[in-house]
Amino acid sequence: MRLAAGALCFVSLQGAPAGAFEARVRPFFNRYCLACHHGGNRTAGVALDGLKDASVIRGNAEMFEKVFRKVRTSEMPPPTAPKPPAAERAFVAGFLESELDRAAAVRPDPGRPGIHRLNRAEYNNALRDLLAIDFEPAADFPADDAGYGFDNIAGALSLPPVLAEKYLKAAEKATRMAVGNRKWDAVLDRYTVERRVDQTRRLGAEYPEGSRGGTTVRHRFPADGEYLLRVRLRGVAEKGRTARVEIRVDGEKVREAEIRLSGQETEEEARRVEVRLALKAGRRAVQAVLFDDGEMLPPARRLAVDWVEVGGPFEVTGPGETESRRAIFTCRPAAAAGERACAEEILGRMARRAYRRPVRLAEVPGLMKFYRMGREGGTFDDGVQLALKAMLMSPNFLFRVERDSGTGVQRLTDYELASRLSFFLWSTIPDETLLRAAGQGRLSQPVPLRAQVRRMLADGKARALTENFAGQWLQLRNLNGVKPDPDRLPEYNAALRDDFRRETELFFETVVKDDLSVLTFLDAGFTFVNERLARHYGMEGVKGAEFRRVALEGAQRGGVLTQASVLTISSYPTRTSPVIRGKWILENLLGAPPPPPPPDVPPLEEKGVGQTVSLRKQLEAHRASAACSSCHARMDPIGFSLENYDAIGRWRTYDGNFPIDAAGGLPDGQQFQNAADLRKILMNQPREFVWCLTSKLMTYALGRGVESTDQAAVRAIARRAEKQGYRFSALVEGIVESAQFRMKRAEEVRSAGR
Q1: 672 and 567 belong to one structural domain
Q2: Cα four-point dihedral sign 676, 677, 679, 683
Q3: pLDDT on residue 1
């Protein structure tokens, strides 16, 4: 990859002297490229021997986008071929960039949108916002297929038969929970509390003074009725020690009990406290609060909350006045004569939100048929529930379809733009503010559109970018599948894994919320840790389970590359992998992924690694194979920069018996001694990273892969962001205001005779 400063100062065509193509560009290709890329060879489908003038570049933009990337990143010429001077490479790359941007301006192509099924996250969020429910009905849906690194790609989201059945069950459960009724079956939910150090300390201001431990669970009570609340303690208390337990609901004490233990773990009944009481429907906080004098005992002997159970409802008295019912029943018919008009009002309003557009003339009558079916033999609420269930099964809810209104390139409607914007930033349906702006035609205007982007980024729902974009871009979702060897890495457990993820999530959220430069991802003077993660990193002075922002000292940590989440997912269960880590950097930070490995690649000889031979020496021997050298020559040196971090992200200076050698180099000749040096190189020459991040973000925003016809837009967005200090919002606004986001290419209609 080309990261040298001179190579990134691409010239514009306007700055090139007349005759530059004949004098410098064509000779460059003739000298360094024609041996492999000519009409008789066409390696990788590229032939460069017919270049009469610069118009050939503009007329073959798809091919020359590939050429531009290879020249720009120093991937070509290959390592075994003569290397052009950095200044010549920079000039040719700049010339190609200018010509390709000019071609894109003459023949803009915003791309063709696909039919986009809501993925699991979007489905859950849409039902949350439409029905004001807070469970995840798509939790047992089949996993969504992914493409281009993301699971919101329209072309990858098929509709298997099993999913249609899941939709039906989810719609029934969601509407039943939202509307409520008197027929709830009693169930028992248990919330198990993980054994944590923080249970031995005050957990926050919401806990009463003098409390030493406890937990809070948030439970959805589906109806007005009676419920059973039960708490169990664990731990081996000393004989005769007394503990006091309080059960609280929304901060109000509903049960208090004194527990006197004899020191036997088997005293099951003595460890339980319960209460049965009437509660209103809705989401409520149930607290178990512990008071005792065991602060000075070792942690293993202290009492702690083991689990909290909620059972019910028993003796249901009504559906209750829940947030869901308030969201749905905006009118209440006083008599049977007013039911139809009220139902039409409810269904028309709900369908507008669910379908993300004004409701068509025939759509409400169609929903009213289901209302009448539910109302016959039932109640008004039953009729509304069945109609809502039908609404959730409609393709208008389950799919995002942008219909053609003509031929050629055309603008999205304001409602289509609202939907794109909301699913991009929130992974859910538009809210009322966004729909109102669409109805007033304001989203097609740059200033109101930009205002909506900034409003949405500041909203709590923008956390969807962390969960769904960052979770896939940085591959945080892979953490649950990582199983480090417990014999070699006994310190690793589920709690530490969750801390790894939380650090990176908070870091990403801060960049978004505070609108920091995206270069913060490469290097930063801060991170987020709690006591457990700080201890893992060797940091001092951090106490408690809560995460807090801390300033970083020294050069060991900085940016996502040195966070344990990334270092763990890019390792093997038993050891680090410079290959995987180098590949991760190329793919996710530099946008230059290596090709897939060839078949029958011999495995690395693991025997003796770290004991009789260093991993670096073993990989050098592996790289000697001609089948392996071309890709490993790019990946391994970058990956070695992270060798000071073990397979779960701890700092080290030795790997087994061998001192760590983290030195390496980039294909352009730049050398580094460690990860800190590599971060400096990337920070000083940020264009490759910004282009990569822009491409990733655009892929996620559009729900399709970024094609050669989109590359000019990517570059324009990156140039614009540079002028604004590479702020995160500058990238988002650039994408949203691009033709790729606001426009579409209509499907071509061919006549029968063509």
Answers
A1: yes
A2: positive
A3: 45
CB 712 within 8 A of CB 100: yes
Torsion of CA 571, 572, 575, 580, to 10 degrees: -50
How many domains is the chain partitioned into structurally? 3
82 and 208 in one domain? no
pLDDT at 661: 93
Q: What is the mean pLDDT of residues 423-427?
A: 98
Tokens in use for 282? Answer: 């809705």
Of 8-17, 128-137, 606-615, 727-736, where does the model show the most confidence?
A: 727-736
What's the rounded Cα separation, in Å, for the pair 683 and 694?
A: 16
Give the model confidence (pLDDT) of 460-471 as tens digits: 999 999 999 999
Give pTM, 2 decimals: 0.89
Q: How far apart are CA 725 and CA 2, in angstroms?
A: 22
Q: Based on the domain organization, do 237 and 99 belong to the same domain?
A: no
Written in H, E and C, the secondary structure of 490-550 is CCCCHHHHHHHHHHHHHHHHHHHHCCCEHHHHCCCCEEEECHHHHHHHCCCCCCCCCCEEE
CA 553 to chain CA centroid, Å, is 29
Over residues 567-587, the mean pLDDT reads 95
Contacts of 283 (CB under 8 A, 6+ apart): 134, 218, 219, 220, 221, 323
Predicted confidence at residue 451, as pLDDT, reads 97
Domain holding 27, by residue range, is 5-106
Angle (CA) 486-491-496 rounded to 5° is 110
Q: Is residue 455 part of a domain?
A: no
How far is C-alpha 477 from the chain's CA centre?
Answer: 8
CA separation for the pair 533, 5 (Å, rounded)? 37
Whether 737 shows a pLDDT value over 80: the answer reads: yes
* Chain position carrying tokens 């000071």: 644
- Angle (nearest 5°) at CA 579 between 573 and 583: 110
For tokens 């059973």, name the residue: 228
Q: Which of 106, 138, 164 is the last residue of a domain?
A: 106
- 236 contact partners, CB below 8 Å, separation of at least 6: 263, 265, 300, 301
Whether 79 is covered by a domain: the verdict is yes
C-alpha gyration radius of the chain? 30
- Identify which of 236, 239, 252 has the alpha carbon closest to the alpha carbon of residue 289: 252
CA dist 512 and 505 (Å) reads 11
- The bridge status of strand 658-659 relative to strand 664-665 is unpaired
Q: Do the Cβ atoms of 598 and 716 come closer than 8 Å?
A: no
Residue 240 tokens read as 């005769």
Q: Which of 638, 686, 720, 712 is nearest to 68 (CA)?
A: 712
- Which 8-state DSSP code applies to residue 658? E
- Yes or no: say if 695 and 715 are a contact pair by the CB < 8 Å rule: no
Closest by alpha carbon to 616, among 641, 651, 652, 593? 641
pLDDT at 301: 60
pLDDT band at 15 (very low <50, low <70, confident <90, very high): very low
Confidence of residue 623 (pLDDT cuts 50, 70, 90): low
Of 730, 727, 731, 734, nearest in space to 520 by CA: 727
Taking 50 as the threshold, does the pLDDT of residue 754 lie above it? no
- Of 58, 91, 106, the position where a domain reaches its end is 106
CA dihedral 162, 163, 168, 169 (to 10 degrees): 80
pLDDT at 545: 85
